[in-house]
TrEMBL record:
Name assigned to this protein: Alpha-galactosidase
CDD domains with a match to the protein in the record: GH36
One GO MF term: alpha-galactosidase activity
Gene Ontology BP term (one): carbohydrate catabolic process
PANTHER family: ALPHA-GALACTOSIDASE C-RELATED, GLYCOSIDASE FAMILY 31
Alphabetical list of Gene3D superfamilies matching this protein: Aldolase class I, alpha-galactosidase from lactobacil brevis, Golgi alpha-mannosidase II
Active-site residues, record numbering mapped to chain: D465 (nucleophile), D531 (proton donor)
Classification via SUPFAM superfamilies: (Trans)glycosidases
Organism in which the protein naturally occurs: Leifsonia soli
Cross-referenced InterPro entries: Aldolase_TIM, Alpga-gal_N_sf, Alpha-glycosidase_related, GH, Glyco_hydro_27/36_CS, Glyco_hydro_36, Glyco_hydro_36_C, Glyco_hydro_36_N
Domain called Glycosyl hydrolase family 36 N-terminal: residue spans: 30-275
Length: 730
């Protein structure tokens, strides 16, 4: 990496992974994105100049007498009448800032190509430093184009004037072409997260605010706008994700001029950021992914995550989490029996969930008292952990570090560590309150307690829970809003534990899927997608969580036959066949499983272990289907040599037989053998199509498979059919 200082009067053309970003940073103005989308090929100073002129709006009636220019940090003074980048003031003044760029630094792997005012490069990180001399605010605006074509950008402001500067918003936004008119983002609720929702982008704002003090089950996650009808495999789409685990904002807006942007930032509560002279506020990374179809967009997120030095590289251990097996019934003999059964089916990591610490006999008490409950565990956790380790499994333990029960020794000793405002305690949620980690002593206490447990026992993994929204989350004694500080403190705590205990893995669990974002993913190793492991629900939730995260980061477990959340009674082949495309695990009291179930489960564990390199390292493929009764998805090896596909029969199609499905994503010219894979006992009620042959399948090229396709087998609903495709050498 070399850093090059450029004059504040350039065009920048960054290209990587099939994406181009062209920035107009001429004449000391903040960079405006002239193009973000498919690669434009090499440019010259003249062609980029022409591109910029071509993009300039003609003056319409009743707007400013100069072309409106929307910068990456949109500026009101420029005539931009949409959401501004900075919303702030100094005692009512300095609220409309005009930044002048003083320096531009480019950090790039390769050398820069320069043609007059145009600078071209591959993947690079660019920092613009600017000042509003009159407003007394400095700005550092960063834009990176990462190797796979993912863009990320963030801003920091510093008060360089006199007196306090209050920041209420700091947004970054990227322009959308006019043809992008259809929004896709996500809603959700506890146990049913990441529900896709689509609507037209019309004049106005599509604003998704997260005010829960955590990412939220209803987070927009990725807010995309695409050409009408865009799908998984086709249709241009541009989307953003705010990489932050506290309050946040995603938005798409279209002005009456036709100009439109997609953007986001942290959502700051009243008075949260009051900058004294010399103080700064840094906003979160806002990630922007362009794709020709949603799979292409998802691949950019996945490639970025997989390239991080912190990405889990060793095979993801098959996990058993005891929660739905025993809940609060912590009994050593019972858990040892569960560990024995887990090891027998091939489990590699055993996780003890909520209920092990002092006084925690149910969910009304004990949070904050992070010492082992001696009533339930007279000899500590050692006997269980030794047994688990003796069986060759890793051990994991549950914590909920940011929370406190009013009925706990911690709350009795430090009632002033509970987040609150207005001289009252917040309404309880799951009977609990939030521990203010912004208070140094509270933070140190929790760090010390967790460190003590991690130092005493052989623990490879923490399941890090967070089971309530932050309501009235003020910092005592003033009661000033404290969500921003709390979020950063939680990050610091994770970072500190990871630094103290190298190799420690952390799962981001927040009532299931309420903390799924790239901020927490900077310091965690997987997410618990949802508390609901019903495969019918997980087919949707996993599918859409993969819009942001690759499957190896998705905790995905086989539950008991009758699902604890929905009451549905579903076949093991469907439960396991769904969970297997993720970080596979089990959440089931195996003492209640039949021998036949245990045999089948062993086969699924074995299947997963044999194929996890492909499942966790391949390119996600989701075929565009029009019938909600079934869906086709899978993973294609990066070199195209093989793939695993899953046909999930979610309901009963209206027609039977059902016609053909396609297998996209393979090497078009190469022949592939596609064959069904049976794991465990064969499903009843299936009629195989003729191309199955005697189980050896058929040979067709990738292009034929992606375009003409194959006849679906007839299947009962709520079943998964697994297909393996292998390229025939030749
Ligand atoms: C919510 C989690 O999502 C569950 O898996 C479990 O850990 C419970 N909390 C424990 O209280």
């Amino acid at each position: 990496m070399t850093t090059t200082a450029l004059p504040a009067d350039v065009f920048l053309h960054l290209t990587a992974g099939g994406v181009s970003v062209v920035l107009d940073a001429t004449t000391g103005r903040l960079p405006a994105v002239v193009h973000w989308g498919a690669s434009l090929g090499a440019q010259t100073a003249d062609s980029v100049d022409a591109l910029t002129v071509a993009a300039e709006e003609p003056a319409a009636g009743n707007v400013v007498d100069q072309a409106v220019r929307v910068a990456l940090l949109p500026e009101h003074h420029a005539g931009w009448e949409g959401r501004p980048g900075v919303v702030g003031h100094r005692a009512g003044a300095d609220w409309s800032l005009l930044f002048t760029v003083a320096s531009i630094d480019v950090e790039a792997e390769g050398s820069l190509r320069q043609d007059g005012r145009l600078v071209e490069t591959g993947p690079a990180a660019v920092t613009f430093r600017a000042r509003d001399e009159i407003g007394g605010v400095d700005l550092a605006l960063e834009v990176e184009l990462l190797a796979g074509g993912l863009v990320r950008t963030r801003a920091a402001v510093t008060n360089v004037g006199s007196g306090v500067y209050e920041v209420s918003e700091l947004n970054v936004a990227l322009p959308l072409p006019t043809r992008a008119r259809e929004i896709l983002d996500f809603a959700g609720r506890w146990s049913k997260e990441r529900i896709p929702q689509r609507r037209e982008l019309v004049v106005g704002s599509h604003l998704r605010e997260g005010r829960k003090g955590r990412t939220g089950p209803d987070a927009a996650t990725v807010l995309s706008v695409g050409v009408p009808g865009f799908g998984f495999r086709q249709g241009e789409v541009w989307g953003v994700h705010v990489g932050f685990s506290g309050n946040h904002r995603h938005y798409a807006e279209r002005l009456s001029t036709g100009a439109q942007v997609v953007g986001g930032g942290e959502l700051l509560l009243a008075g949260e950021i009051l900058l004294d002279e010399g103080q700064s506020y840094l906003g979160p990374w806002v990630y922007a992914s362009y794709g020709d179809g949603l799979d292409d967009q998802a691949h950019r997120f996945h490639r970025y995550l997989r390239a991080r030095p912190t990405h889990p590289r060793r095979p993801r251990p098959v996990t058993l989490n005891v929660w739905e097996a025993v809940y609060f019934d912590h009994d050593l003999d019972r858990l040892i029996g569960l560990a024995d059964r887990a090891a027998a089916v091939g489990v590699e990591r055993f996780v003890l969930d909520d209920g092990w610490f002092a006084g925690r006999r149910d969910d009304t008490r004990g949070l904050g008292d992070w010492t082992v409950d001696r009533d339930v565990w007279p000899d500590g956790l050692g006997p269980l952990i030794d047994h688990v380790r003796g069986l060759g499994m890793e051990f994991g333990l549950w914590f909920e570090p940011e929370m406190v029960s009013e009925d706990s020794e911690l709350a009795r000793a430090h009632p002033d560590w509970i987040m609150q405002t207005g001289g009252r305690l917040p309404l309880r949620s799951r009977h609990q309150q939030v521990l203010d980690l912004g208070i140094a002593a509270a933070y140190e206490h929790i760090l010390e307690r967790m460190s003590a447990i991690l130092a005493e026992y052989d623990i490879a993994y923490i399941k890090w829970d967070h089971n309530r929204d932050l309501i009235d989350a003020g910092t005592p004694p003033t009661g000033r809003a404290g969500v921003h500080e709390q979020t950063l403190a939680a990050y610091r705590l994770m970072d500190a534990l990871k630094a103290r205990f190298p190799g420690l893995e952390i799962e981001s669990c927040s009532s299931g899927g309420a903390r799924v974002d790239l901020g927490v993913l900077e310091r965690t190793d997987r997410v618990w997608v949802s508390d609901c492991v019903d495969p019918l629900e997980r087919q949707q939730m996993n599918r859409w969580t993969m819009q942001l995260l690759p499957p190896e980061l998705l905790g995905s477990h086989v539950g008991s036959p009758v699902n604890h959340t929905t009451g549905r009674d579903l076949a093991l082949s469907f439960r396991a066949g769904t969970a297997v495309f993720g970080h596979f695990g089990i959440e089931w009291d195996l003492a209640r499983a039949t021998d036949a179930d245990l045999d089948d489960l062993t086969e699924w564990v074995d299947f997963h272990i044999r194929h996890r390199e492909l499942l966790h390292g391949g390119d996600l493929v989701r075929a565009d289907q029009v019938d909600p009764a079934f869906q086709v998805y899978g993973s294609v090896a990066p070199d195209g040599s093989e793939a695993l596909f899953f046909l999930a029969f979610l309901g009963r199609p209206n027609e039977s037989p059902h016609g053909r499905f396609t297998l996209p994503g393979l090497d078009g010219d190469a022949p592939y053998r596609v064959r069904p894979v049976t794991v465990g006992a064969a499903d009843p009620g299936r009629t195989d199509p003729r191309w199955y042959g005697d189980g050896t399948g058929t040979v067709l090229t990738g292009r034929v498979l992606a375009t003409a396709g194959l006849q679906l087998p007839l299947s009962l609903p709520e079943r998964v059919v697994v297909l393996h495709a292998s390229r025939i050498a030749g």
